[in-house]
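Backbone-to-sequence.
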């Protein structure tokens, strides 16, 4: 059964049951009240009859039945019974007294029975008959009026229930439509996504604040994120293959040259082998960096220790100095330590320092400062610098300011992408300040402690 039909059926049925219960309550209450009123009137009549009877014994009036007739209820009867309950006589308006068997129960004020759909009530009162014997007087009353009114009320209630059922049904239909329409849209978008292989969004995502509108917006957001991620992956694969293709083409062409010319021309052979070795190196670096990026994504575990940042910086700088024979000047506060993953921090410092070295020729100044919640390390070089509009893209994968510049340095455009992943894990903020021709300053803000909560989220 469809959800729409289920909602329809259940809500309508529930409301109809409630209505029926309420109406039955009204009906029963009315009937009870009406019978009670009739009973009270009959009781008053009975009391009056008793008074008149007592007067009968004082004042000798001829026929007691005249009194009985005088007090006989309209559409009712009076029965006279002896002490043993045997009927002595009766006066009757319209009831077939003989046929109506009514007995007063223990603690009951009146007895009631339905005769052909009309309730008949009876009250009983003891009396002294004119001959001095104790008799029972029974007053019976047929409640035709009550029955008629109850019948009318029943009809009205049925009519009202039927009339109410129509808007009820319509409102339930509208309600289920309100609930299900966004779900239908969601379903449609998901089906379309599956069949077309695209990232379909819900066309009219509601702007409301309710849960369904929220689901729609979340779905659209999720689809957008998936699409962006997919595009990024696609871009990454295409960039990676492009990057690998260039050195491979160079290697291939030099290898072919060697095959054609052999080693007869030593100069050409030397050049070819140097180019092959250089491009293989580049390819190797590129693959290592790509693997690094992939590893960074999947492996989120950190080994956090108390790390002396000053010492770490010194050892990194000394390694770089030995490798490239460049001057790195460390200034500012010393003996600064934080709780972090030392290995990853060193990797990050290495990327930034290596860039400073690659893209400048002068000395590089490193300034460390203790701040309120973090330690800042500013790495300033005096190279070509980066144009303002390029700064936001620096951390994108394969992004390079200028291909010419990178060809010289052998960069691949993956270094800062790896730095971004590392900084995310270590909760380090990287700020870049630079302008074309004015050098570049990369500042790392390393928190004293990695917040466990954020770490878990990653
Ligand atoms: P690569 O491995 O090519 O250096 P990166 O991701 O490390 O790739 O750097 C991205 C781009 O940012 C490069 O094109 C590079 O030219 C530029 N860049 C990075 N650091 C500096 C710097 N200190 N000075 C000038 N340009 C820089």
């Amino acid at each position: 059964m469809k959800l729409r039909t289920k909602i329809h059926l259940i809500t309508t049925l529930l409301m109809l049951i409630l209505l029926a219960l309420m109406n039955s309550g009204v009906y029963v209450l009315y009937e009870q009240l009406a019978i009670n009123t009739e009973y009270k009137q009959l009781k008053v009549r009975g009391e009056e009859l008793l008074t008149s009877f007592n007067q009968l014994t004082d004042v000798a009036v001829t026929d007691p039945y005249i009194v009985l007739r005088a007090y006989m209820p309209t559409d009712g009867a009076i029965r006279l019974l002896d002490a043993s309950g045997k009927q002595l006589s009766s006066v009757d308006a319209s009831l077939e007294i003989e046929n109506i068997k009514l007995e007063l129960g223990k603690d009951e004020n009146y007895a009631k029975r339905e005769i052909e759909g009309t309730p008949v009530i009876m009250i009983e009162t003891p009396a002294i008959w004119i001959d001095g014997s104790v008799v029972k007087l029974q007053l019976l009353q047929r409640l035709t009026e009550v029955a008629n009114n109850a019948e009318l009320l029943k009809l009205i209630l049925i009519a009202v229930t039927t009339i109410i059922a129509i808007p009820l049904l319509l409102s339930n239909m509208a309600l289920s439509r309100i609930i299900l329409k966004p779900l239908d849209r969601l379903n449609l978008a998901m089906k379309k996504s599956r069949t077309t292989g695209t990232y379909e969004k819900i066309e009219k995502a509601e702007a409301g604040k309710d849960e369904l509108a929220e689901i729609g917006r979340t779905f659209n957001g999720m689809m957008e994120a998936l699409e962006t991620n997919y595009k990024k992956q696609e871009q990454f694969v295409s960039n990676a293959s492009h990057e690998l293709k260039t050195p491979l083409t160079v290697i291939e062409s030099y290898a072919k040259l060697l095959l054609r010319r052999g080693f007869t021309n030593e100069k050409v052979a030397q050049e070819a082998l140097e180019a092959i070795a250089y491009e293989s190196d580049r390819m190797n670096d590129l693959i290592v960096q790509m693997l690094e990026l992939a590893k960074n994504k999947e492996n989120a575990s950190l080994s956090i220790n108390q790390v002396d940042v000053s010492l770490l910086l010194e050892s990194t700088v000394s390694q770089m100095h030995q490798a490239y024979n460049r001057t790195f000047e460390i200034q500012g506060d010393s003996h600064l330590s934080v709780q972090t993953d030392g290995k990853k921090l060193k990797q990050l410092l290495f990327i930034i320092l290596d860039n400073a070295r690659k893209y400048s020729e002068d000395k590089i100044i490193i300034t460390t400062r203790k701040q309120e919640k973090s330690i800042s390390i500013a790495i300033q070089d005096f190279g070509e610098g980066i144009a303002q509009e390029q700064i936001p893209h620096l951390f994108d994968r394969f992004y390079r300011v200028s291909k010419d510049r990178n060809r010289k340095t052998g960069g691949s455009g993956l270094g800062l992408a790896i730095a971004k992943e590392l900084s995310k894990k270590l909760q380090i903020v990287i700020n870049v300040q630079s302008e074309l021709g004015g050098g570049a300053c990369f500042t790392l803000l390393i928190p004293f402690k990695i917040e466990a909560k954020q770490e878990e989220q990653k």
